[in-house]
Design a protein that fits this description.
Oligomer: single chain
Shape: globular
Number of strands: 10
Structural class: mainly beta
CATH topology: Jelly Rolls
Order of helices and strands: EEEEEEEEEE
Helix content: under 10%
Radius of gyration: 15 Å
Distance between the termini: 21 Å
Largest sheet: 6 strands, antiparallel
Number of domains: 1
Number of helices: 0
Length: 150
């Protein structure tokens, strides 16, 4: 089972109650230098879980997630490098607890210094919806537990 490291969480309960547009999730990961392999030769997965169901006034709003890198932590939607993008997902595919895992590409476009996620809300806006996203070496062996105090 994988342990979630706070330094690999890209967005925790990120609120996508947003109008159509592109939104940068809260945290970016500093890879240290451009060209750095995020997994250091090992497969790393982008894991996401829906923590609040998505709703919209109709059935047309869509969500697309893009794993991106840029030379600055304020990752810009139009100048960043897109390494991975999901299909556009309708609210019906985004109920509470829905989990998605995607392996990070290890070949192709070189990673820039900062890694993050752009959430693209399209066609219409969502009325509710939250996701948590993080990197892990394990796409299925994780389980969410409440924060504990020792």
């Amino acid at each position: 089972m994988a342990i979630m490291d706070k330094r690999t969480i890209i967005g925790e309960d990120f609120d996508l109650d947003q109008e159509a547009g592109t939104y940068l999730l809260t945290n970016q990961i500093d890879l240290g230098a451009a060209g750095t392999d995020p997994g250091n030769g090992q497969v790393v997965y982008l894991n996401t879980v829906v923590t609040e169901a998505f709703t919209d006034g109709g059935d047309s709003a869509t969500l697309e997630l893009r794993l991106v890198s840029d030379d600055t932590a304020a990752i810009h939607a139009s100048t960043s490098t897109i390494h991975l993008k999901t299909a556009a997902m309708l609210k019906a595919s985004l109920p509470v607890g829905a989990k998605f895992s995607f392996p990070l590409p290890v070949e192709g476009l070189e990673y820039e210094k900062f890694l993050g996620i752009n959430a693209v809300v399209a066609t219409a806006g969502f009325d509710t919806g939250m996701i948590t996203a993080w990197l892990s070496p394990d796409p299925i062996g994780w389980k969410a537990h409440p924060d504990a105090t020792n």
